[in-house]
Amino acid sequence: xxxxxxxxxxxxxxxxxxxxxxxxxxxxxxxxxxxxxxxxxxxxxxxxxxxxxxxxxxxxxxxxxxxxxxxxxxxxxxxxxxxxxxxxxxxxxxxxxxxxxxxxxxxxxxxxxxxxxxxxxxxxxxxxxxxxxxxxxxxxxxxxxxxxxxxxxxxxxxxxxxxxxxxxxxxxxxxxxxxxxxxxxxxxxxxxxxxxxxxxxxxxxxxxxxxxxxxxxxxxxxxxxxxxxxxxxxxxxxxxxxxxxxxxxxxxxxxxxxxxxxxxxxxxxxxxxxxxxxxxxxxxxxxxxxxxxxxxxxxxxxxxxxxxxxxxxxxxxxxxxxxxxxxxxxxxxxxxxxxxxxxxxxxxxxxxxxxxxxxxxxxxxxxxxxxxxxxxxxxxxxxxxxxxxxxxxxxxxxxxxxxxxxxxxxxxxxxxxxxxxxxxxxxxxxxxxxxxxxxxxxxxxxxxxxxxxxxxxxxxxxxxxxxxxxxxxxxxxxxxxxxxxxxxxxxxxxxxxxxxxxxxxxxxxxxxxxxxxxxxxxxxxxxx
Length: 528
Hints:
Radius of gyration: 47 Å
Number of strands: 8
Strand order of the largest sheet: 3-4-5
Helix content: 10-25%
Distance between the termini: 164 Å
Order of helices and strands: HHHHEEHHHHEEEHEEE
Number of helices: 9
Strand content: 5-15%
């Protein structure tokens, strides 16, 4: 009581400035009229009231003043006066109480309080109502970036289902996100198929939604504020380029689509929803490949186009698909349908259905002929029509739909006028007869050979040993090689055996085919 003036100074009764939630500023006059950092307004000081003047302009209570300002700059500056929890602070004015009295008690977590269509009793189910219009400053025009194409995405439409907010934004939980800038963070939908979306403030680009992972399309980076940009052909071609078919009858393969409309429930869902007249697993070669070689390619062309390239049909390009599997020239590759792709040997095994058992006529003794040790390897054209350079797409007689290989004996089998014949009685039984190769020659046995027999042909299968012609029997004690170069009593000269000609030599010094006379070291000239 007797301390005097030394005890009556600023700071003896309250801090200079007072502690939080008061601001840390010591410029008292900024908020208290007539005050300074070292002097007070004696007329008002100690009057029992907090006499505060506002730094805000007139009309600040209106949302288009303080609300829009807070949205632009964030609420950090508000907290210096209204407190960290905005419950009043040094200003004594609670943002929370004021907003609650206006009907928005949970305004801090109500997305629609700042943008979109306001919902007082807001729950997560009202999330889509938060999309502009209106923007955070009341914008309603789609030409404003704050509004843009929000509603075209959130409402869905003729091209697809409604897009969730999380497809383009991380949905915030409270006011912590309020910093004056809308953050775009693309979600899983925009990133489908490996797309790497980007946003530059005006356009979105490289998104799955706008065709980043499909070919064709006229506008894959649409303007956020543009109009009339969502139409068939902007994201992909109509139709998409190869290997897609050139057909624009989209509904043929895509249920609910037409040449100008889509099925919104399926469009942009990250999957290719295509229907097919084929069963499940048709892409496997033992499904479509074996079927094509059994039934021919004519039926394939009705959907895949006359050249099987998708052009003019509703199915995709066979050529492109086969090429991507490593067979660009499949149309002229014999081993694409039969034989051994690794070695290049075109004859079965395997046959056109993937079988390798010799008891099937389609396999038979191909391997015995192509790997024979008793003659030079015959050409395919010795027994079949010559398909050299054949293109199965244009050669209708090649894969013709009956699944049976044509046999057409060539010159070797018909040597000397032999009436070579082939007979197929079932899928497991066939034979060839009267062929030069199997004994239809002078002194031969004219053998009829089973095509599915696994017994190896021997020297006596086609002729005697020795043959019965001429003086062979009188020379039975001699080695075959005495008269035939490269032969022995048990082996043949495979380079000349069964070649349509008689090779005479070694101990025979002369041979006259017309008079059938010979001279040799064993004796003088004799008639055979």
